[in-house]
Amino acid sequence: YLITGVAAGSLVEGTRERISVIRAGVSVGLVGAVAALVMHFVQLFALDGEVSLASTIRPVWSTLFAFTGGVLSSFLVLGLVPLFEAAGFVTDYRLMELANLNHPLLRQLMLRAPGSYHHSVLVGTLAEAGCEAIGANALEAKVAAYFHDVGKGLKPAYFIENQRNNVNRHANLDPWRSAQVIISHVVDGGRMAREHKLPKPIVDNIYMHHGTGLLQYFYDEARRQAAPGETVDIAAFRYPGPRPSTPEAGVILLADKVEAATRTIQHPNEDNIRAMIRRIFDSVLADGQFDECPLTVQQIAVVSETFVTVLLGIHHQRIEYASTADLSRSRPGTDPSSDAFITLDSTDLPETGRVPPEGAWEELPPKDDTSEAVDYESIEHLPGALAGPPAR
């Protein structure tokens, strides 16, 4: 039992496919059969010293039982895994099933908010690499990153990565209402994840991926529009949290901010990417978002270097051929006057249960919603004094 137990533990550890458990069961059966055979021969020749029919048949039966027991144990494990998963245990097999991107929530996000979907996949790549580099659960981080923005599928065009044709949905909203729309994707995403019975670590990471971070751009706009002497409640412009409390959640928060800010860099070379990451990390730490996160300074430095490597691979330079511009102008479905052009949003806004200041729901005088969209996630709008001009 000791030999087969050690063999089973070493063979099953790190497996992420159910068929690997069957292979491990066969291997354990072979190890057990050999061990049983060796022990019987040692007992026969070293201790008893006499050979009989019973002593000859006994090793055969022991070997057969040892092999059969190893194989059957693998099927028993596979049969019990769903019961443990139903009780709340999160296995790598369950995470691997969610990582194939065929979940209804991810398909809905892909169809309704393709920009957010692409962003989530890239965040998953960054989070997985960062967690692998520091020894955290890379698979959990990747899957949680895939689902972290599913709430954006309800109102995709209010988020910068999904805005097309220079249409800015925030142009006709006051800063309080714009902040509520942005914040709602966390609340809605957590609710949708619970409705689809996603594992608890995935749901928790959805709520933690912004921590209690500040929507600096809309907060500054609210202060600019406030009457003289009026105080703007900063809490109305912060995400509800909680702040990251696991290494995986901390890496996802950083990956989310870094990937979003990378889109604002006109020349994503190594120096600009490294400077951008440093400023984002400093801003997150200064804002207290990692006060409850077990990541060490050394681990954060390792994650930073890993992000630089991954982003340089993603944003490598390509040669632009002469026909590229002509092809981009001839893309179908990009003309708002065309019958093929589809608007994804209605004018309804999701509720989050947050109560803004009195009068905050009154819309400002109508503006042209075709004004240039403002990327509120850019490095220009980091919380506090660390904000500055974007990297070029």
Keywords:
14 helices; mainly alpha; 2 domains; 392 residues; elongated; Hypothetical protein af1432
Structure, explained:
The chain folds into two domains: 2-86, no CATH class; 98-386, Hypothetical protein af1432 (Orthogonal Bundle). By secondary structure, the protein is mostly helical. 56% of the residues lie in helices and 0% in strands. The chain has helices at residues 2-12, 18-48, 53-86, 92-98, 104-112, 114-134, 138-147, 175-195, 200-208, 216-225, 247-262, 270-286, 297-314, 324-329. It has 14 helices and no strands. The chain is elongated. The model is unreliable at 330-368 and 385-392 (pLDDT under 50).
Write a brief structural summary.
The chain is built from 14 helices and no strands. The protein has 392 residues and is mainly α.
Which runs of at least 5 residues are low in confidence (pLDDT < 50)? Answer: 330-368, 385-392
Task: Give helix % range.
Answer: 55-70%
Task: Please write the CATH class name of the largest domain.
Answer: Mainly Alpha
In terms of DSSP E residues, the strand content is under 5%
CATH architecture of the largest domain: Orthogonal Bundle
Q: Which sequence of SSEs, written as H and E, runs from N to C?
A: HHHHHHHHHHHHHH
Major beta sheet, specifics?
none
So how many helices? 14
Question: Measured on Cα atoms, how large is the radius of gyration?
Answer: 28 Å
CATH topology (fold) name of the largest domain: Hypothetical protein af1432
The geometry reads as elongated
Terminal CA distance reads 63 Å
- What is the assigned CATH homologous superfamily of the largest domain? Hypothetical protein af1432
The tally of beta strands, per DSSP, is 0
Q: Please state the structural category.
A: mainly alpha
For the record, the count of structural domains works out to: 2
**Nearest-integer average pLDDT:** 79
